Request: fold
Amino acid sequence: MKQTCWQILKRPLYQKKLRFVIATSGLARPNKTTTLLVQRPICMESPLYVARPILPDLSQLNELLEDVWSTRIVTNEGPLHNRLEEELKAYLGVPVAKLFASGTTALICAIRSLGLTEGAEIITTPLTFAATAHAIAFCGYKPVFADVCEQSLTLDPAAVETAISDRTEAVIGVHVYGTLCDVTGLQDVCRRRNLRLIFDAAHAFGSQKDGTSVGMVGDISVFSLHATKLFHTLEGGLITTGNPQLAESIRLIRNFGIASEEQVDMVGINGKMSELHAAIGLLNLPLVEAEIAARAKLRQTYDSMIAGRPGLRSQLTQPGVKLSEQYYPLIIDPEEFGRTRDDIYEEFKAHGIYARRYFWPVCSDFAPYQSEKVHSVQAIPVVDKIKDRVLCLPFHSGVKVNHIENISNIMSK
Ligand SMILES: Cc1ncc(COP(=O)(O)O)c(C=O)c1O
Reply:
């Protein structure tokens, strides 16, 4: 017989578990909080995470894998890998799509393909996942962190301009949460100052601006196909570019720089995607549109939940932009809203709702970037404010009405 949340919560074993979780979480005095939780009929049957991977039908996966098993071609640009590259070119509307083992490997290969001078500086945003800055440092270059625009939270072209030194050779903009960078502004600075431009499009799969694919702007765009992303291959990455010369270097760097059996043209790494990962990608791609539709609906629901509430705002609406529907970032102004981001985050957590403070801490806070020799941080007032205010809500087709009620109740207290 199906039990209600209330019945589950009242079970002695569950209450014991709850007391243990509360006592070890350091949230509040155990007895008081335990009483409070067990008296409130909030559903805690399973945790609700910020992301939930789409997954293909297992029998379809088996069918694809039977071919792999029979040929024993399991990696190194196998047939499934090549088919997925073709399907992604068509889906994203780009001439070149190169698959990688991860988004981070793809970023490293993209940066290496530019052939920058040793010790060059690359300007980027600190409001991003660690991989953006780490890829720069890993390649031996110096990340220089500049501020973001207040509304879009993406790299501010004016801040980039003031961060340029005589060692600057490239800029990496990040379409953070799926909000597109000021592409025209960044392209303009890079053209005038003779800088290369990469976009970290990890959050922007399928985004378009006025009908143009986000994968067609700048020199190179890099996508993550990690399981937390809208379209994924469990682990994986993708590079798109409109520049055929760069495409060839990127392909070589991905495979140890090997041009032929007898010839190695450049220093490269193993960035290849296996047939198993490509199979997941081929089966996930047709599922993406339904997931986007479910998330677009959830976005509307969240938007109405916060509408007219002082101190709450979400992602900037950008005219002409088809959103990737990757994240739903909520920006909480503690003075106006009356509660801090961390209060709400902890309360969500106590109710099994795992919202994420993306991105806090920011890259310029990380230990490896504290030395002036490694990085240079200008004043970043917008990032410094936003990093304590942003909270990404659970955002996927597994978020149901009861979850939304819980989220809304917690936000309304
Ligand atoms: C903005 C950004 N860049 C790069 C990456 C790295 O991608 P991956 O985890 O596939 O290596 C991520 C992953 O979450 C990301 O969010």
Observations:
- DSSP finds 16 helices and 18 strands in the chain.
- Residues 59 and 88 are 23 Å apart (CA to CA).
- Residues 102-104, 128-129, 131-132, 174, 200, 202-203, 224, 226, 237 surround pyridoxal-5'-phosphate (CB under 6 Å).
- The radius of gyration is 23 Å.
